[in-house]
Amino acid sequence: MSPVVSLAFPFFGLILLGFFSGKIAKVPEEGMRWMNFFIVYIALPALFFKLMSVTPFEQFGNWRFILATTLCTYIAFVISFGIGILASKGNVREAAIQGNLGAYSNVGYMGPGLTLAALGPQSAVPTVLIFVFDSVLLFTLLPFLMALGGSEKLRFFATAKLVVIRIVTHPFNVASAAGVLASYLQWSPPAAIDTILTLLKNAAAPVALFALGVTVALRPLTKVPFEMPLHLFVKLIFHPVLVFAMLSLLGGFERVWILTATLMSALPPALNVFVMARQYNVWVDKASSGVLVGTLASIGTVTGLLWLIAENKLPVW
């Protein structure tokens, strides 16, 4: 068990360190803006570019893997959305946020660092593919459902344009696309630029995890509604089990790809769930509590999954 704890503890330790720092220092949330800017626009894009640019180009065309993992995320979203519809008595906007709580893994902040540490560089491509296509799916679903559930008339083309712009211009997706192009052209940046990218890549995970802990600490933990444990069960248990079962039954995937997808789907709810709730001013405090409780609960569930992987107890064939 010691090697697994040694692997998992630094990741959750950084989150907890950020959490306790946020509670003790009580830095205003506005003070996090530059750190968040560094993470989203500088460090993580450098990480994604580096991962993609050194990967053989032909590995990016695994559409069976993309369709299977994205379908699993969609199923998790639909289940949590349905729970949200029942819990909110038909409020589509609240249910949309709840759907994200049950389906949106922390694939940006936690995913790359954890999968690379646990499974090695061969996990880089499935990690990035899951991030890109899960983000496209959820960034697409949410605006349409928010418009559908709003009092204003749904303007399909205006909403579609907004969704496309957000997807195309997201710094993670821009960096990933640049990395794919660099891989196709077999291009490497000059040594000085590459050194900067490497430094930023190495800073991405620790800064992101620390910032996640601080941000969660700054949000109040409200009363946990009855539906939240259901969403967290979908996110932390059902989603990874579904991904593992589907990829195993379909067959034809390398073991490391199946394990990477399972680990990515087992991650706690992304901080973006709270960010989107605040953006639309819907289910804000409960979304914050869901991210906090989900992150704490995942210390046990993700560590358990890492133990199963390390002990080769998952029957991958």
Can you characterise this structure?
The chain is mainly α. It contains 13 helices and no strands. The protein has helices at residues 2-25, 33-53, 63-87, 92-103, 111-119, 124-149, 156-169, 171-185, 191-217, 227-250, 255-265, 272-280, 284-310. The protein is globular, with a radius of gyration of 19 Å.
Q: Main sheet, how many strands, which sense, barrel? A: none
N-to-C order of helices and strands? HHHHHHHHHHHHH
Write down how many β-strands occur, each being a DSSP E stretch of 2 or more residues.
0
Binned, the helix content reads over 70%
Keywords:
mainly alpha; 13 helices
Short description:
The protein is mainly α and 317 residues long. It contains 13 helices and no strands.
Layout: helices, strands, pairs:
Layout: H1 2-25, H2 33-53, H3 63-87, H4 92-103, H5 111-119, H6 124-149, H7 156-169, H8 171-185, H9 191-217, H10 227-250, H11 255-265, H12 272-280, H13 284-310
Helix pairs in contact: 1-9, 1-13, 2-8, 2-9, 3-4, 3-6, 3-10, 4-6, 4-10, 4-12, 5-6, 6-7, 6-11, 10-11, 10-13, 12-13
